[in-house]
Amino acid sequence: MDKTKMVAVPSVGIIPxxxxxxxxVLECNHLGITFGGLxxxxxxxxxVGATEIAGLIGPNGAGKTTVFNLLTKVYQPTTGTILxxxxxTNGMNTMQVNKAGIARTFQNIRLFDKLTVEENVxxxxxxxxxxxxxxxILRLPSYWKTERAAHEKAMELLSIFDMQDMADYRAGSLxxxxxxxxxxxxxxxxxxxxxxxxxxxxxxNPSETAELMENIRKIRDTFQIAVLLIEHDMNLVMGICEGxxxxxxxxxxxxxxxxxxxxxxxxxxxYLGKKKEG
Length: 278
Hints:
Strand order of the largest sheet: 8-9-10-5-11-12
Largest sheet: 6 strands, mixed
Radius of gyration: 20 Å
Strand content: 15-25%
Distance between the termini: 34 Å
Order of helices and strands: EEEEEHEEHEHHHHEHEHEEHH
Mean pLDDT: 88
Helix content: 25-40%
Oligomer: single chain
């Protein structure tokens, strides 16, 4: 893969050089959340460049999905701030933060199984579909115009993963890997500025994972958006991510490029496994 030059930004961290003169898409400052006295995430600081593919890794139970839930306002943070393209998301709910530009997928696939593939994507297009209830009931020209545009947009998005021929299939009937891809397409339909992928390679075989890596790059290049992913497949993480943060017991213990993370003794001991002497 082509190596991205990462550059230091004063008081921020590192971002890809190509994003240096662009607004940071995501800034988390001293983010934290406590559940009944238990600190789940503590003093979490992270920046993501406008077109960066970033990784958040760590052992099971480290707090990674909790971070995603904070970013998408499933949980409201106890402390700290989240800036999306420089705008404070404080007070926003899940729908508002999605409309502002954060979309996500989940560890456990969440599709509308009984709806078609195209219908699932159209649900993601809710931010763009504008027609009144009256025009929908009476099937006025404005309704059909919007529906036609939604169909065209859905097919365009599906074609990214070569899924346009599956548009009429029931979502629940798709193979596992195709369901994963559909969930990503539906997230893209909301027109995000940053896409959060929660273990996108879970359950995939090596060839599907390799294809996923190419598709993530394709998404970044096509839509010029950032991607932040949680993943346990280290081949995928080290092969695609430009900046990586390592979480352990709710706190970041290391940040850096893939090369720096792989060589970091704290990470090796806490996550990749302490090397045996002998």
